[in-house]
Amino acid sequence: MKILIVEDEASLLEIMTATLKKEGYVVENATDHDSAIGKLSVYAYDCVLLDIMLPGGSGLDVLEHIRKQNTKTNVIIISAKDSIDDKVKGLELGADDYLAKPFHLAELVARMRSVARRSRNDGEFAYRLGNVSLEPESNRVLVDGRDVPLLKKEFDILAYFMQRPGHLVDKAVLAEAVWGDHIDQADNFQFVYAQMKNLRRKLAEAGADIEIKSVYGFGYKLV
């Protein structure tokens, strides 16, 4: 799961980033209105944690930009402004939740998980395709009810595809989604090929009736 934190308070940004990385998320940051718009125009995120009061503009304008892109990105507004007007306006513009500062980091993580379950998985605790079940909160993958041990990046790759069955995914998009936007500096995608090869082998050996197929010249597709 890839997160963008839009927050200009350096100390809060640092602790939120550290906490979410420990939870296993890919985390990127923006500290003002323009940098947030710039990242959202180039990269895809599963969830945006969005402050309302930003240098250079309002976080609500950033929220409008996200919704105009017609993406499924979850947005949780995080702001010291706890007025009813701000909360109502944010929710009307399409925010999925609202968390007022100060807050406990455990509550932030719980809100993120709750929003992800509601929007992407109809309230269930696992993604299921064929005889494969993936449980994001426990980092478990089961085939016909039997555990399939996966490395962290293998799990992240499978989770990405199970949320996009039948979609053609470019290898560069996959790398950026799982490893973060610093992947732009990589010379090749050998690390993607290696992780993908191991994941496909493990699924096949476990008897999974889903498969991540290579589409020559384009990328991969879960079928």
Describe the structure.
The protein is an alpha/beta fold and 223 residues long. The protein has two domains: 2-121, 3-Layer(aba) Sandwich (Rossmann fold); 127-222, Winged helix-like DNA-binding domain superfamily/Winged helix DNA-binding domain (Arc Repressor Mutant, subunit A), CATH 1.10.10.10. It is built from eight helices and 14 strands. The chain has helices spanning 10-22, 33-42, 59-68, 84-92, 105-121, 152-162, 171-179, 190-206; strands at 2-6, 26-30, 47-50, 53-54, 57-58, 74-79, 97-100, 127-129, 132-135, 140-143, 146-147, 168-170, 212-215, 219-222. Strands 2-1-3-6-7 form a five-stranded parallel β-sheet, sandwiched between helices. It has a four-stranded antiparallel β-sheet with strand order 8-9-10-11, with helices on one face. The chain has a three-stranded antiparallel β-sheet with strand order 12-14-13. Strand 13 and strand 14 form a beta hairpin. The chain is elongated and about 55 Å long. It starts with a strand and ends with a strand. The model has no long low-confidence stretch (mean pLDDT 85).
